[in-house]
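We emphasize that the prediction below concerns an isolated chain of 876 residues; any contacts that depend on oligomerization or on bound cofactors are therefore not represented. The input was used exactly as deposited, without trimming of termini.
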Amino acid sequence: MKITALRLFNVKRFAGRGVAIEDIGDGVNVLCAANEFGKSTSFEALHALFFQAHTGQPKDVKRLQPYSGGNPVIEADIETEAGRYRLAKQFIGGKRATVTDIGSGRLVAQADEAENFIAGLTRGGTAGPAGLLWVRQGITGIEDRDRREEEDERRVRASLLESVQGEVEAVTGGRRMAEVSARCAEELGRLVTASGRPKAGGPYEIALAEQKRLAAEVARLEADVDALRKDLDERAAAAKHLKELDDPDERAARRQALERAQTALDAARAHGEALKSAQAELSHARSRRDATRRELDAFRGALATSVQLGGRIAAAEQARDTALARHRAATDAIARAEAEAQAAETEEKQARDLLARLDAALKARDRAERVAALATTLETVETLRTEREAAEAALAPIAVPAKSVERLQALEVEIAALAALASAREPKLAIVYDAGAAARVRLDGIALGDGEERGLADPARLDIPGIGTVTLRTSRPAGDDAALRKAVAERDALLAKLGAADLSEVRQREAAAQRAKAEIVRLAARIEALAPQGLPALREEIARLAAAASPELEIKGDPDAARLGAEHASQRVGAARLALREAQPSRGLAEDALRKAETALAALQGERAQVEASLGPADGRAERERALAEDARLAAESFAEAEAKAAQLRDAAPDLASAEAAVKRLRSAEETSSRQIGDLRERIAGLDGTIRARADEAVEEQWRETREALDAANGRVAAFEAEVALLDRLQATLQAARSAARDLYLKPVMMELRPLLALLFDDLTITFDEKTLLPHKIMRGGAEEDVERLSGGTREQLSVLTRLAFARLLARDGRPAPVILDDALVYSDDDRIEKMFDALHRQSADQQIIVFSCRQRAFARLGGRALRMIDWRPES
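Result of the prediction step, given as a token string:
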């Protein structure tokens, strides 16, 4: 297949317009243009034409639609062995697909039949040769991509190598090996998934499920058998234990032991009550002894405190008298300072009142002068505003919109160009008269001069004296001057709207309007300078000053002398206030000292009053101290007696906790035995019922039968496991054999690639990955390098050379497909890119190559057929 033309309409950036790339020939074809020219858009459109159904709207199709909407139309002319055809599709709206025979114009196929025809050309869609050889911008084919895309391309390369290699057929089986591998994979896929798990619904998975079910059933029945045996053993143990607990002698012994323990517990509790009474008496005696001792100690301490407080109160009274004298002195000093400050403030007020009257008189005079000046400014501004309003009124009828002038100028230029073009296209007529010819030929009623050239109207009337009238028709298509008439009509309408006769008058009005605008700007600037806040603000300022004006006051006295007197008075006030401020802290300190002295004295007096009240009358204090000492002695003796009694009872007390524990243990044992006897009888009855039910089900016979079925299922699973292992080993062996013959398997593509590599690199060999069939490692200078670690330029060069080699293999296999590269050489340096150009030309001898690039200077050296885009519109 060879592409000879590509046309697209309303695709991406070409909204509402169409472009075409015609005359695409054999060999190297180059479309080199700047960015945003439409190269990648052309590639995507061609890709959609061949690989996207016209009935769907996937993401790649929606990307073709411009932002303004509409229906993308794509058309391509191709040449095959069967003939030349035109493929066309319209997407999104008005969906259609057609195939037309270019030679006869016959419609070959449409709709789904057209899709089938196009699919047959690509032989496998994006997984066919075109998917392998058509390189999108930014894709080298070596980088990591979508796993499905990589697998599709790998299958194409593998199929191509298997179809063109010859020697591999004898060594590794070639297609026969591929068939065996496929059959092995098919058999393996029938049993397991790609990850080695049993395939859902497959025989292996069914056998495993049956094995699992039988194993679970065996485990369940085995548990039932174990449970039956356990129940029998448990019933025998329970019967034995019940016989031991229900013996009459054992029961009588338990009752007698409980009665003896209860008697010992009662005696221990009675002794404990007596001990509690003795301990209560001891606690009361201790409290009374401690209380009498504390009361005696407190009385004696109060006597000592009373003597001490007498001396402290005398010292506090002396400190209070000193603080009181200091406070009186500070108060007198402050009174004197306040009197001086008051006299100074009176003097200062009188001086400032005189100074204020003098200042008011001066300000009234200044305000009157300011009002007069502002009134003059207001009059000037009013005059300027009147002039500006007159200028604006004169500007209104002559103003011309700038866009209208620009559009009128553009229309004049367009009319001149279209008129010149129409005149150049118009048929011309010229006559050279014979010497002595008196008559003159008239064209549309106007005589033609000798040798004069004049354009022909359609139709044109030619009057030849003595012969007749000749009517000439040019048969020009109607509407050739439609653009000219449209432009003239638009110009006349615009002139009528502006009220002008021609562009010159519009320009004169525009100049006059600009002068008027300049005058308006000048007047506005003067108004702004004189009244920056505006006329209303100026009027308000004059009114405010006029309202604030007061009758002119007579100035009496010297303002400077009055100001000097006010300053002296102010200094006197400051000095008096400083003196007052200095005196005030001393009064505050004196007040604090007096308050502290009074507080301390009052506290000491209150404390002594409290102590005296607790001691009582002075004449009875000695007798009271003797009485308190006697009470303390008697309380101590009572405590000693109570303590001895409590100690005697405590020493003879039995162990109450042990007696209680013994009774609790024996009673619990009796209750437990009775409860166990009832539980054992119930348990034995339940076990009897369970044993009879399981014996009726014959669980042991069922367990043996299920065990035999499980052994058979294990055998089937083992057979499937052996089959999977055998298929895995066979697949590994086939893969090892193909890997061992990898170099021979890849010999066809290496033969095509070797001369191409020699154009760019010295002493470089490539190792292909046996899984992806893409360059994997390179060897140069005795060192091995991974392709992934190479520079971007080297990787893209290897990618393009590899695709050229596969393209040659496709041609040899009878499946020629064009190689299309969309900016595929963006990282190559100047030297390498010229060598890549040589490689492209070397492979283009019997191969069509189409290159899109934005690197105009670099690709100028590529040569080949230069393609260009022209305007195109699809037939309705």
